[in-house]
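Structure in, sequence out. Go:
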């Protein structure tokens, strides 16, 4: 899995790439670790998962803001193209 994450690192959230070892730990936990070991590792893995989700949320919010800005700029430019001097006077 680490190789796949490395190959896709340009397209994945930075936190996923940074904490790629989490996937190996989770996989090993499902197949090999005792319940006590899983309980011991849980807080760290939980923190890594939360970091990944928070970064994903931040990226999504940033994209939404950029899209809203783009739409507003297009609206303004369309208004300027149709009304030229009137639109300039309002700004």
């Amino acid at each position: 899995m680490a190789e796949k994450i490395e190959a896709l690192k340009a397209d994945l959230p930075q936190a996923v790439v940074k904490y790629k070892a989490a996937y190996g730990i989770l996989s090993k936990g499902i197949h090999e670790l005792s319940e006590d070991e899983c309980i011991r590792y849980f807080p760290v893995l939980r923190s890594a998962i939360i970091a990944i989700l928070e970064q994903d949320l931040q990226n999504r919010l940033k994209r939404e803001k950029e899209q809203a800005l783009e739409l507003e700029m297009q609206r303004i430019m369309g208004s300027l193209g149709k009304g030229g001097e009137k639109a300039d006077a309002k700004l």
